[in-house]
Amino acid sequence: MTAAAIDVRGLGKDFGAVRALDRLDLEVRDAEFFGFLGPNGAGKTTTVHLLATLLTPSRGSARVAGHDVVRDGLAVRRSIGLVFQDTTLDRDLTVEENLRFAARLWNLPAHRAAPRIDALLRQFGLDERRRDPVRALSGGMRRAADIARGILHEPRILFLDEPTAGLDPRARRSLWELIRGLRASSGLTVFLTTHYVEEAEPCDRVAVMDRGRLAALGTPAELKRAAGVGSLEEVFLARTGRELAETGAG
Amino acid sequence: MRAVYGIVVREFVRFLRQRGRVLSSVGRPFVWLIFAGAGFAAVFAGRSEIDYHVYMAPGLLGMVVMFGSLLAALSTVIDRDAGVLRMMLVAPIRRGTVALGKTLGASLVGTVQAIVVAAILLPVVGLAPTPAGALLALAAIVLTSLALGALGVVLAAGMRSIENFAGVMNFVVFPMLFLSGALYPVRHLGPVLHVLAHVNPLAYGVDLLKHALLARWSDTGYGGELPISLDCAALVLYALAGLAAAGALLAREGGVARAAFRERR
Predict the structure, then answer these.
(1) Which of A61, A165, A177, B229 has CA 20 to 30 A from B127's CA?
(2) Which ipTM score applies to this complex?
């Protein structure tokens, strides 16, 4: 068995009196496509922020790419890429300038960054738009540029936090194509949070989250079999007694 | 540090790309020179030692530095709202590095603006500094830019939203300007304001600029008043304390970092 990409033990986070994440135990394997499914407020984004060292845990511990998230935050951030629902790009800079800026933040020397940026722009179909300011790009292209920014430093693990929110169906499809290609070519571990059941279907394993707790964990097929139902939508209903769509998603 | 360099480059490219910002930053001191200059010159009338427009020149340069670096540093708040700050916070760099990059970037913007304005303003008012004076003026501009850039990052790190911007203008920028000696000597002010002037970083910058540019008038009381070494030390202290505070404020979990990652729906 290969080492776990992410190893979470009793991890929890409170914001004042609000228990955003209770006690999470989780292992994500190397090169796994891991889905983190649940409605808004289930603790998905809190978990991602804890694993990315942007928040300090209230209890428990976690290792990401072998590094402790509390003691070794810089090493963790070096090993991961993060793509958020909202863009992190500077709208006033061009696509290329944004990637160069990111390359410097990730301490990539120019002679290594330049060919990597060229390759990513081609791979993501952004080559012709490289000198356009980000504000001139469509939502789908912007998200593609965001993902290019997220994997520029060749991370072991890529976190995608609701990456398709606000995208039209065509842009969503091409985004999944892009991620499939990335996984096939680099053996990247992908940790995807989503509240769309259909996005969790292609995952190797899915964790179903509800109100800060892990409600179910397994391959999509296992989850459906265990709950005796035909879709992940129904798995969520069976595990939590509520419908995914009713809990404030969207 | 490559990350610091990257943040500085981005800051400067953004500045150059905003034509309106470049023009207004260079034009602003001349608006003050003409309109405030006319009014204060009339009040000053009868004193033959120095032409008011000459007296005003170091203060106007200080003002350019202040608006330039402070406003550039306050753009950290805009970075947060636009999401760009998140890119810096998820990068494998310390929060102090982000604070340093923003401070240096803002200082560069302020310094370049002040140099451009000086190249036009000094000939216009008929001030020809000695080489040593010019060098000291440059040092004053750089040090003041650093101190105010760091202060701007501290303010930005403590600000909840860009709506507090008006408050910063009213309660920080304008008092700082009027208590800096840019427009009139602060030694004539009452004791309370006089003390406030001494905690004002811009006052040390303007005093240093007066040493550099108005040395000829120091006997008549219009040159720099504090020792040059004190001015320099105060500015360096402000820059270092500001950097330390900005790094600490950015590292707070509940501060800008948290706000930068708050889910917006």
Answers:
(1) B229
(2) 0.86
